[in-house]
Every structure is written in structure tokens, then in C-alpha cells.
Amino acid sequence: MSKLIYILNGPNLNLLGKRQPEIYGSETLADVERDCIRVASDLGLQVRFLQSNAEHQLIDWIHEAREDAAGIIINPAAYTHTSVAILDSLNAFDNPIIEVHISNVHKREPFRHHSYVSSVASGVMAGFGTQGYQLALQRMAVLVAAANK
Ligand code: DQA
């Protein structure tokens, strides 16, 4: 019974903490990873926390997750709004998917209001800051437990 959760982060999230802190806050991605590992461990989950600026790398990790992951939490960043390829790869993943956005994309430019990924996600977190990852993990624990019943 796998309890491994992939947490995937898309382009520019490596700059978290430095990039537009008025929108994304001052925590770094390393801070987010540290918090996710702590919360996951409290929930009895393991985490593989990854970031890439390359669409193909995110897709390769989603394919890899098919082999060993109980769920995927993904912040596809700008690819949210553009990538049919990431949607197709997520459609080939059979376990729960949760989409996370640090900012409230619905309050921002109209081009951020559409997500290709939402159609395959069990749920979407947006506007909860980096805490959204922890909230997504809490929900993921419930979904994984239900799938293993
Ligand atoms: C984001 C929102 C996207 O619109 C943007 O391109 C990002 C980050 C967020 O976490 O709020 O890079 O996914």
C-alpha cells in the first residue's frame, strides 16, 4: 500500500521567496518542502518534492508517479494555463490529484482564470499562500485512506 505523494512544482517556483514576494510571500521552496515533509510525516505519508522549469521534466515525473505514487499534488505554475500535455499526462495517472496555487489566481489577470489541470483534479487550493500545500496534504491523506479501504 503506497503512501508516497509526489509534490510537483512548475516553472519559476525555484525563485519562491525572491520572486514577487507581494504575491507569493517570502518563504522559499525549501521552506515549503520542509513544512510538507513534517506535515506528511504526521499524516503517515511520504513525500517526493520536486521542481522543474521544463514541461517535459514535469511530464516525466508524472509518468514515474504512475509506478509508485498514491497521489500527486501539483502546482503547475504558468503551465496551468497553457499545457494540454501536462493535462494528458495527469489523465494517465489513476490516483488522486490536487492542484495548488499559492496566489488566488481568480483575483488576478483573466488569463490565469483558466486551468487545464482543474478538470482532472479532485480539488484545487488557491490563495492560501504556501499553507495551501499543507492543506492539500491533509486532504490527500483522506483521499488515500479512502482509496485503500
Ligand atoms: C501560481 C499561479 C500561476 O498563475 C503563476 O503562473 C505561477 C504561480 C501560484 O502558485 O499562485 O507561477 O501557480
From TrEMBL:
Active site, per annotation: Y24, H101
Pathway field: Metabolic intermediate biosynthesis; chorismate biosynthesis; chorismate from D-erythrose 4-phosphate and phosphoenolpyruvate: step 3/7
Residues carrying the site annotation Transition state stabilizer: R19
SUPFAM superfamilies, alphabetized: Type II 3-dehydroquinate dehydratase
Residue numbers binding substrate: N75, H81, D88, I102, S103, R112
Signal peptide: none
Biological process terms in GO annotation: amino acid biosynthetic process; aromatic amino acid family biosynthetic process; chorismate biosynthetic process; quinate catabolic process
Gene Ontology molecular functions: 3-dehydroquinate dehydratase activity
EC number(s) recorded for this UniProt protein: 4.2.1.10
Known catalytic reactions: 3-dehydroquinate = 3-dehydroshikimate + H2O
Keyword hit for Lyase: yes
Keywords, in A-Z order: Amino-acid biosynthesis, Aromatic amino acid biosynthesis, Lyase
Matching Pfam families: DHquinase_II
Purpose of the protein: Catalyzes a trans-dehydration via an enolate intermediate.
NCBIfam families referenced in this protein's UniProt entry, alphabetically: aroQ (TIGR01088), PRK05395.1-1 (NF003804), PRK05395.1-2 (NF003805), PRK05395.1-3 (NF003806), PRK05395.1-4 (NF003807)
Family: Belongs to the type-II 3-dehydroquinase family.
Binding partners and assembly: Homododecamer.
Protein name: 3-dehydroquinate dehydratase
